[in-house]
């Protein structure tokens, strides 16, 4: 208790929010009696929920700083390095709306499209062999989902769920194959972006595994 009291004092001075995970009922009661759990401290049941709480706080803090609505064409121009490429890619995409709680794609189903996220918060959920599910991360606007399955033609490796009302643009398998046939330069630019996005996610996964091993 003395050690946790010191930790609480240190984070209060630093302006950091404390989230406690996997506390037993007895331990939670003891922490409350020692004023370690207070109104500014969150106690949650597992690491996944704690991570989700942090992600929501970060999104809420930084999203309002953007003064303009994100636009698909502007974003794709930036990532593809060419406005004409962006225009053509946008012309192949279909705008989709999802409500909070909607399933966008189901693990194990055919990967028949990739999505460009414009307005939303998306949860990536993996169904484990024991029947449990694990929410591995959240994704916000200006990211993509489903690109790996679309390119490799493998089944969806995770379920994608809208955690808020969302707007996405879908590039279907047929449209992707048409681009590959008719505009190889655009296809190369798109693949370069996809590779960079996948490398970033692999880096995130490696860091997450390192934390969980501690």
What key attributes describe this structure?
single chain, 214 residues, alpha+beta, Jelly Rolls, 2 domains, four-stranded antiparallel beta sheet, 8 helices, 48% helix
**For the CA atoms, what is the radius of gyration?**
21 Å
Major sheet characteristics: 4 strands, antiparallel
Would you state the CATH class of the largest domain? Answer: Mainly Beta
Mean of pLDDT: 83
As laid out across the biggest beta sheet, the strand order is 3-10-5-8
According to CATH, the fold-level topology of the largest domain is Jelly Rolls
Low-confidence stretches: 64-70
Write the CATH architecture name of the largest domain.
Answer: Sandwich
SSE-based structural type: alpha+beta
Order of helices and strands: HEHEHHHEEEEEEHEEHH
Distance between the first and last residues' Cα: 22 Å
Strand content: 15-25%
CATH homologous group name of the largest domain: Jelly Rolls
How would you portray this structure in words?
With 214 residues, the protein is an alpha+beta fold. It folds into two domains: 62 residues, no CATH class; 146 residues, Jelly Rolls. Helix content is 48%, strand content 23%. It contains eight helices and ten strands. Strand 6 and strand 7 form a beta hairpin. Helix 4 packs across helix 5 and helix 7 crosses helix 8. The longest helix has 30 residues. The chain is elongated and about 70 Å long. About 3% of the residues have low confidence.
């Amino acid at each position: 208790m003395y050690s946790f009291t010191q930790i609480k004092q240190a984070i209060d001075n630093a302006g950091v929010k404390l989230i406690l995970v996997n506390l037993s009922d007895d331990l939670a009661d003891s922490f409350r009696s020692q004023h370690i759990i207070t109104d500014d401290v969150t106690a949650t049941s597992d690491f996944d929920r704690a991570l989700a709480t942090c992600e929501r706080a970060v999104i809420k803090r930084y999203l309002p700083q953007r003064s303009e609505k994100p636009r698909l064409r502007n974003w794709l121009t930036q990532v593809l390095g060419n406005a004409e490429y962006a225009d053509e890619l946008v012309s192949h995409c279909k705008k989709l709306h999802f409500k909070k709680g909607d399933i966008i794609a189901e693990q194990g189903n055919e990967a028949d499209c990739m999505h460009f996220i414009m307005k939303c918060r998306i949860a990536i959920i993996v169904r484990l062999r024991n029947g449990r599910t694990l929410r591995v991360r959240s994704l916000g606007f200006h990211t993509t989902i489903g690109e790996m399955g679309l390119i490799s033609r493998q089944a969806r490796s995770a379920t994608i769920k809208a955690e808020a009302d969302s707007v996405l643009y879908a590039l279907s398998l047929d449209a992707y194959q048409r681009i590959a046939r008719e505009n190889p330069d655009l296809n190369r630019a798109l693949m370069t972006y996809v590779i960079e996005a996948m490398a970033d996610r692999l880096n995130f996964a490696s860091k997450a595994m390192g934390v969980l091993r501690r």
